[in-house]
Specification:
Layout: H1 3-16, H2 23-30, H3 34-47, E1 54-58, E2 62-66, H4 71-75, H5 84-106, H6 113-120, H7 124-139, E3 144-148, E4 152-156, H8 159-172, H9 176-182, H10 188-196, H11 199-202, H12 208-226, H13 235-242, H14 245-261, H15 267-279, H16 292-310, H17 318-336, H18 346-352, H19 354-371, H20 377-400, E5 403-408, H21 413-427, E6 431-437, H22 444-449, E7 452-455, E8 466-468, H23 475-484, H24 495-499, E9 502-511, H25 516-529, H26 535-547, E10 551-553, E11 556-557, E12 570-582, E13 585-594, H27 603-615, H28 619-623, H29 629-639
Parallel strand pairs: 5-6, 5-7, 7-8, 9-12, 11-13
Antiparallel strand pairs: 1-2, 3-4, 10-11, 12-13
Helix pairs in contact: 1-3, 2-3, 5-7, 5-9, 6-7, 8-12, 10-12, 12-15, 14-15, 16-17, 16-19, 17-20, 19-20, 25-26
């Protein structure tokens, strides 16, 4: 890897990792020495002196990039021939080229490399480099640049994708040339007045961005259809759209355009406007959209299966249900109508909400099985926000429902205080110890006042609130309290239970695999041979990986089976001689997680303990020192007590 590519890779790593990265971690990821990283980092810090962004080096923590410029600008820091102005100009030039092709598309015109070279006062070789980047951006929307006869290059692809690309471009770039062309016949203010004079549109709870997008979409509908570029729509889809509230609203928009502008839109454009109304992001649910009963049942199915898989019961969370109904109705429509959405929060969601993101990947698989639509990571990230909020609400409810407990102990003060301390140690904010009493002071009034009474001695009265415990609060007592007081079958709070997930026959060090597929094939084959999963569960590991990479940063990945009907709880551990590509990250340690359905309530806690071992415990670095299974178990218990 040359110096320029190496520095660019360092910037990419720092941009995608909000947490600190040590020089050794960076060196491992890009395959150089720590000394080389220090040298490159010093030069990058010097380059950043004229920028707002800053690389912060913290002793014993590592490096962190405070991002205050566009990603495209920062990635060009590796090119020492470019000044700050040059880098900003480079991004501007790239956007200019894309805008130039959009204008040509709207005019049914072509663009040649020579025209671009003359307009931008740069050489053909520079134009070729920009065109390669333009093609990559177009690929995200299933569009291409194609040679049109001998006239030059044009954007080519399905009409719906072309329009979606233009709308997305204008969200990111303020390009007066593109806007001028779109609103050449009718201004954006006129279109806004037309839309807001329709009460049904005015009452739609659109976000500001969605409302602005709708104005652009209406203008594109008029402009493109007048040039003969309309959308094809199947009869089955048309039948679904015709029964929606949004379709009636779209017809009123078309009628108003005809009345105010004397432009009669083709009927296919009414269906396009229906799709735009259906897929625009909203603050809350408005009028009924497509088949609300079906969406409601889909949400109920998702929550039922999430409970089975992860042991998390959201059945009483009306906020989550309403949020998922609104989002899924819109998201499914977006996929069906090939209208992509950008999620600027994706990396933050994956980093800050690891469990909600895993739940959302599983939810996306359920939607795929039932609806036949495939959500990408952007949509999954938005779903994760709903589950993240729901889990936060659950945590707040748990804190609000602190159990009031009296401890009855016949021993002296020292033993009584030790028992009280052990209860607090194991249950922290979940239990409030009201008082420690001798048996003779326990009255019916105290029993009525208490949620529970933990007693080390038999009491003369009977009550389901009374739990008999040992004065040293042993493991059996802790499990009894979890089961009776908090209705939990198990808790990942003891080393013994966590150790039960690791097995010596599923522990593999320093393998020389080169690809993600090799790692997963090996681990799942070993798990099948060991009786920890069957072939169906094995297949679900690969299905999960296809939905979204299970790499979590810090050189680690946490793949897991989605089908757990016939699995035995197990965590397979694999370390590699060298890091390998795993999606868009590098990975050197892999934990393959399977939890049987009977222990589904443990999924969140087991996953988080592994995640914390990797993130907070610097697990990948620690694992380089491991020589055998026993040493690993000692390390795991030490790092994540």
């Amino acid at each position: 890897m040359d110096k320029k590519s190496r520095k660019k890779k360092i910037i990419e790593l720092l941009i995608t990792r909000p947490e600190d990265m040590t020089g050794e971690d960076i060196a491992t990821q890009i395959g150089v020495s720590s000394r080389t990283v220090r040298s490159d980092m010093k030069k990058l810090q010097e380059r950043l002196q004229s920028f707002k962004s800053e690389i912060i080096a913290a002793p014993n923590k590592g490096y962190r990039l405070e991002v205050k410029e566009p990603r495209e600008v920062l990635l060009q820091l590796s090119d020492e021939s470019k000044t700050q102005v040059g880098m900003l100009q480079s991004v501007s030039q790239q956007n200019y080229i894309i805008g130039r092709f959009i204008v040509a598309c709207l005019d049914d015109d072509s663009v040649t490399q020579m025209h671009l070279s003359e307009e931008m006062h740069v050489g053909i070789s520079t134009i070729k480099k920009y065109l390669a980047e333009t093609r990559l951006k177009l690929e995200e929307w299933n569009l291409t640049l194609e040679q049109y006869k001998t006239e030059g290059l044009r954007i080519a692809g399905e009409e719906g994708n072309i329009r979606s690309f233009i709308v997305d471009y204008l969200q990111e770039v303020e390009n007066p040339l593109v806007k001028e062309r779109i609103f050449s016949q009718t201004s954006d203010v006129q279109y806004q007045d037309i839309l807001l004079n329709i009460s049904e549109v005015r009452n739609l709870p659109f976000t500001d961005t969605a409302q602005h997008n709708l104005i652009v979409q209406v203008a594109l509908s008029v402009l493109r259809s007048q040039r003969g570029h309309t959308l094809a729509i199947t009869s089955s889809l048309a039948q679904k759209l015709e029964v929606s509230f949004e379709h009636d609203t779209a017809k009123k928009i078309a009628n108003s355009i005809n009345e105010k502008l004397s432009i009669d839109l083709p009927f296919s454009e009414v269906f396009y406007l229906t799709q735009c109304l259906l897929t625009g992001k909203k603050f809350h649910d408005g009028e009924s959209g497509l088949n609300d009963d079906h969406i409601r049942q889909l949400v109920e199915t998702i929550l039922d299966r999430v409970d089975e898989k992860f042991g998390l019961d959201f059945s009483d969370d009306s906020y989550l249900k309403e949020g998922l109904m609104l989002h899924l109705r819109i998201a499914i429509a977006r996929v069906q109508f090939h209208m992509a959405i950008r999620n600027e929060l994706l990396e933050t969601v994956k980093h800050d909400y690891p469990v909600p993101f895993q739940i959302s990947v599983y939810a996306a698989k359920i939607v795929s099985d039932i609806e036949g639509v495939q959500f990408n990571e952007n949509e999954i990230g938005y779903i994760a926000l709903h589950f993240g909020a729901a889990m936060s609400r659950n945590s707040m409810m748990d804190l609000d429902e602190v159990k009031r407990v009296y401890i009855v102990c016949s021993a002296g003060l020292g033993v009584s205080m030790l028992l009280k301390a052990k209860v607090r140690e194991h249950f922290r904010n979940s239990i409030q110890v009201v008082d420690v009493l001798p048996a003779y002071k326990v009255t019916q009034d105290i029993i009525d006042d208490a949620d529970f009474i933990f007693s080390t001695v038999p009491l003369p009265m009977e009550s389901p609130k009374i739990l008999s415990v040992n004065h040293m609060l042993q493991k059996e007592d802790i499990e009894k309290i979890q089961r009776v007081v908090f209705h939990r079958q198990d808790e990942v709070g003891s080393d013994d239970l966590m150790k039960g997930f690791f097995h010596g026959d599923s522990f593999f060090l320093n393998k020389d695999f080169k690809t993600r597929e090799e790692c997963l094939e090996f681990l799942t084959d070993q798990a099948v041979q060991g009786g920890y999963m069957d072939e169906q569960s094995k297949q679900s590991v690969f299905e999960r990986e296809q939905l979204s990479s299970t790499a979590v940063g810090n050189l680690a990945a946490l793949p897991h089976a989605m089908d757990t009907e016939h699995v035995k709880s197990n965590i397979s551990v694999l370390t590699l001689q060298k890091p390998i590509p795993w999606g868009d990250m590098q990975v050197q340690i892999v934990f393959l997680l399977t939890i049987e359905q009977e222990k589904s309530a443990l999924w969140e806690k087991v996953f988080l303990r592994l995640y914390n071992f990797i993130k907070d415990g610097n697990g990948a670095e620690q694992m380089r020192k491991i020589r055998d299974f026993e040493q690993f178990m000692s390390l795991f218990a030490e790092v994540i007590p």
